[in-house]
Amino acid sequence: MSSQVPWSTGLCDCFDDVPSCFMTWCCPCITFGRIAEAVDKGQTSCVASGAIYVLLQLVTGLQCIYSCCYRSKLRQQYSLHESPCADCLVHCFCEPCALCQEYRELKNRGVDMSGKQPQGVAMAPMAHSGMRR
Question: Who is most buried in 28, 58, 81, 121, counting CB within 10 A?
Fold first, then answer.
């Protein structure tokens, strides 16, 4: 079993990255969507994850249960300590701070969190469905 390492920033270090802090406080679904897309290595889209987050927030108010799952995935990928307490508690009691910390962690590890496709990456050509004129 690999040893666990500390987070690169603390839970309450939101102002270390003011733009992402502001974005998270105004529209946490964007921050969450970007985190989910990064943690899932592009297998989940930012838009889909953000939409699920908003839907859960509007219908149940329990979007923290969904987002805490991604905190756990992030911790497992980078062998991070479960701190300052259990993932679900962090998200249930301090959702914006948790999202900011996860966003900063990914940025500090070199993950592009802009939500844009990297320059120089070619899109695969669209396959034609066979319907042509």
Answer: 28
For the chain, what are the domain ranges?
18-108
Look up the pTM and report it. Answer: 0.83
Mean pLDDT of the chain: 87
Residue reference for tokens 């839907």? 55
DSSP 8-state symbol, 27: -
Distance CA 35, CA 70 (A): 8
Contact 43, 56 (CB under 8 A): no
Integer Cα distance of 119 and 10 in angstroms: 31
Q: Which residue matches tokens 């009691």?
A: 93
Instruction: Map residue 84 onto helix, strand or coil.
Output: coil
Classify residue 131 by its DSSP letter: -
